[in-house]
Amino acid sequence: MQLISSTSPSATMTEDFLPLNGTDHLEFRVGNAKQAAFFYRAAFGMELIAYRGPETGCRDRASWVVRQGKICFVFTSALGGDHEIADHVLRHGDGVRDVAFLVDDAEAAWLAATARGAHSVQAPQTFRDEEGEVRTASIAVYGDVTHSFIERQRYTGAFLPGFRACPLPDPLARNAGLRYIDHIVGNVGWGDMNHWVDFYRDVMGFHLYQHFDDKQITTEYSSLMSKVMANGNGRVKVLVNEPARGRRKSQIEEYLDYYAGPGVQHLAMATDDIIQTVNTLRDHGVEFIGTPAAYYEGLRSRVGPIEESFDELARLGILADRDDEGYLLQIFTRPVTDRPTLFFEIIQRKGSRGFGKGNIKALFEAIEREQAARGNL
């Protein structure tokens, strides 16, 4: 991994023309929203907070909303086979449709983006119920993914107008210590990475945070390229990956084949205690990509002193990396759907603002072992 631009927003941004206050929620289009929500409650310990469907007056779809910390997922499925949501699931399988950002002014954000060339998906609209109002707008990004802008200062409800709050506490949820979305990773096609990097820079005011090339993310068989973009205040980070030439099919190519195009590959969720979180998730049945014992030989000398037990990291398969600002700990789940597409990263930062440059080769080789088991390498 090579850091080719400052990690300080002020060093590259003189004006944040599209200020984002963080990730509001992510909406997944799925084949069965009720069952998907059940999985994330049981496996990741998320709480069911809201519902929308026929019982609330919505006749064409059902949506279930779960939350843990500041992480909010919405699972939506069509109630008929001729619906655009059903078509989305037919093509892609279960996957992320919308990455929504919290803003102070949804119309101003939409105007700033569309004035710079973004394609509008939804012009600003206001939705109201007895608990207040929310203003939203959205734009298109890679593949079928959208970014919504959510303005909710005048709303006191559980999620959005039109949703019914669910009783809390959720008897199924067992909190795993997940706090917020650390970063979001999207896969795009051959030669498209720089186009979307330019989009995030020119249209949304992001700046280049880090850059990985195909000499740094490579194995004997395959490689990829990736660039990290951060918004003005650093609260939102998106990675854009594209495949690079190799002897065999890369993980990005496999994703593009099975997802039938570009899309969100994985979401990194932050925790303050990764050992506790991973222990809890394993107890819930979450499956993680295996790490060979050889990775931990000499890890102490590579990483230096850390607060956690190296034996515990090895037992759980957690990766560690250090940079000039501190260290981080991370681990990756196996794909959470039958198609080898969407997966999750669990990350704990101890000062480091990087993305685990010392772990790239080990992670890539682990993913290739999974690909080989599927017959896709």
> Strands of the biggest beta sheet: in what spatial order?
6-7-8-5-1-4-3-2-9
Strand element count: 17
Structural class: alpha+beta
> What name does CATH use for the topology of the largest domain?
2,3-Dihydroxybiphenyl 1,2-Dioxygenase, domain 1
The domain tally reads: 2
Within CATH, the superfamily of the largest domain carries the name 2,3-Dihydroxybiphenyl 1,2-Dioxygenase, domain 1
- Reported CATH architecture of the largest domain: Roll
Q: Could you describe the largest sheet, including whether it forms a barrel?
A: 9 strands, mixed
Outline the low-pLDDT stretches: 1-13
Helix content: 10-25%
CATH level-1 class of the largest domain: Alpha Beta
Distance between the termini: 23 Å
Provide the gyration radius in Å. 20 Å
Number of helices: 10
